[in-house]
Amino acid sequence: MPDEIVKQLNTDILKETTGFLVQGAHINAKAVEKVNRYLPELEEKTRAFDRKNSQSTLAFMTLTMLNGQSPYRMMRQIMAEVEKRKGALAEAQVNHAKFLKEIERLQDEEDPVLQAKYRQKCVNLSTMEQKINGSFKDIATLIDAYNNIKEKNGIDEWDEVAFEKEEKKHHVRRAFELMYRNLLNGGRASESTVEYCQQYGVHPQVCLTEVSGYLKYTADKISKHDLPHANDLEDFLDGMADKYQLNPDATSERIFGKKDVSNHDYMYKTVMK
Fold first, then answer.
1. Is 23 part of a structural domain of the chain?
2. What tens digit of pLDDT does each residue of 140-175 get?
3. How far apart are CA 218 and CA 213, in angstroms?
4. Exposed, middle or buried by CB within 10 Å (0-12, 13-18, 19+), for 11?
5. Mean pLDDT of 8-15
6. Does 250 reside within a domain?
7. Cβ contact 201:250 at 8 Å
8. Is residue 272 part of a domain?
9. pLDDT at position 24
10. Which of 41, 6, 9 is nearest to 20 (CA)?
């Protein structure tokens, strides 16, 4: 693209900026000049935002939403996020090839309309490549998160069996987490949280009592200007998960006559013991 986007062409004004060329006497020359001056910088900075979420948002929010801080749940979410981006990349590669073919076909055309279509395809290709790059960056970020979670939790190899083994403990922890949010938000347990507790063998009033005690403990600390980190809450929830992790087994025995209803024969197994 030329450095100057405002050119005199006979009595008309030719306005050109990145991917755009308009000939006419009624195009605002000062506006085009401003665009020509600053658009390249904006386009260059746009490359930093070639995906929906930042790395921080992806790691701290996407992976923990509805999953808490369960390592297996977060790793499962990572795989779901990667699969979505793989699908987008598979489709993008087809469209990218089509754009390249169209650009090659149109690049030497002299017809003004076809020249305009050529520039349009170039702009579209640039935008598409930014999104493709964003998808690769997302996948790379997710892979980093996956490896970090495995390392932090001492997970070497795992499969569906290992995931199922941790599921009941995750749901017990989640029940206490929901109770905490209920009491903090409205001062009472919601019907859905009470049901959740029962489903995984935690007596709702026991859960209510434990969480109420933690709320009072935390309020006392804050009143003394001892401000806890959010990790304090996570430690409490971990403690509740450890304390009541066997409760679902008793519920399973009551309903199904056995502690564990998971059938390993139906699971994808890679870890041989």
1. yes
2. 999 999 999 999 999 988 888 888 888 999 999 999
3. 9
4. exposed
5. 41
6. yes
7. yes
8. no
9. 61
10. 6
